Amino acid sequence: MSEERRRGTLIIIGGGEERDPRGHREILKEVARHVHGGKLVLATVASHRPEGYFDEYQKGFADLDVGELVELYVEDRCEASDREKLAVLDDAAGIFFSGGDQLRITSQIGDTGIEAKVRALFERGGLIAGTSAGASVMSDTMLVKGTSRETHRIGDLHMSPGLGLVRNVIIDQHFAERGRFGRLLGAVAHNPRVLGLGIDEDTAAILEGDRFRVIGSGAVYVVDGSQVSHCNLAEARPERVLSMHDVKVHVLGTGDQFDLKSRSAIPASADD
Amino acid sequence: MSEERRRGTLIIIGGGEERDPRGHREILKEVARHVHGGKLVLATVASHRPEGYFDEYQKGFADLDVGELVELYVEDRCEASDREKLAVLDDAAGIFFSGGDQLRITSQIGDTGIEAKVRALFERGGLIAGTSAGASVMSDTMLVKGTSRETHRIGDLHMSPGLGLVRNVIIDQHFAERGRFGRLLGAVAHNPRVLGLGIDEDTAAILEGDRFRVIGSGAVYVVDGSQVSHCNLAEARPERVLSMHDVKVHVLGTGDQFDLKSRSAIPASADD
Fold this sequence. Notes:
homodimer; 272 residues; alpha/beta; Rossmann fold; nine-stranded mixed sheet; five-stranded mixed sheet; 7 helices; 29% strand
């Protein structure tokens, strides 16, 4: 999808967003604001055991401005062309991908009728939200596996084609909580064309056009490798740790914005 | 201590260095190389329960080039002026601070005869090694407490005066393993005059003059805040997360060097 055709909004969530009806639910409220009374499809495709997700989100969204919350689950790839399943997306204002395994999303719905409907929704200005695995899946190349809480070792990272709703970035989630700075640096080292986005739990990047804004209780980290002066990724043995010099990093808190095109951060205004 | 008077070598270890006599013991071997047959004092001051440390290091150093390994422990501050204890350091070639609580080191030996002897050893070209708490304590301001695995929240960080053997840096250890990127960024945000050094387990920075070299199985992260364009530390409420834009980060692997004065990284040579 070319940058030019991008019309909708992405809400990219780092996992663990507050869903308790008594809690602050900052992110769920933002999702509801974008749907404003319309239909929201909860895609639980990422999960092997989707039971419970729908209930939890139904409670979380109950008193918010969501007209209708409908679950979309695909047990097996053949169902992803099922007419009834496809029809669910026709009049949706938004879709919300819950967590699980990002490879389940892409292997089950990649290049199917459902994926086409998701793109169509996005192109007509709809909302695509995703948390955890549902966040990772949004980029053209996505992070699948890699050790947390360790400096990146060359060779210890699995990437895969994502849904491609946003280009030139790679997304990691549960970021500070799972100590994933090493692996995001590793991903960026592979090709500094991609900007690394590390999103904390209960935190989201709301992307419209080329700019995203941060909401939630944690931070969004941006890893920019465009000025890297040295990287041993291609030379060193797989068991060696990554060496990468002159990386630029931004830590973005609530209200901060970031422009993907100019790769620059914009501070929150005083009243944020 | 002024930069000009710095004569000895610092081996700053991120904790968890291989000590098993059957293991690679890269860092212990480096320590022994600097002591070359001389006396090494193992200072277990950081620990409330020093039992076992001496035994373990004795086994780890047994077949290496350490002439004599002697334990130095201070149960209480009044012992830090004890003649016998002080005499231990007179003919030492090096001192090795084991792990525990960095505040125990500074509160027990800060401004005592032992501290004076440690400085004297350093000024006559001796070795000061330290692991974990023993690493943190080397800078003039040291990190004491702060949440790991979380983006830094303003106000959630405790710093304290260290031994001041190296100026203008702040050291964190068990770095990638405990997800401490957030808190080191937080420390640097307080005053970008200090360069943040985050050292992984089983990894060390060997500092001589203004330059250090990396050895071990992990990485040393350098956080350079000198070009930070925005930081909310002084404005925001304590529960807010840190926002900091345009931070420079270096990930240094084995053989990489870093010059503290010019704040620049030097890649390892091909045969490292």
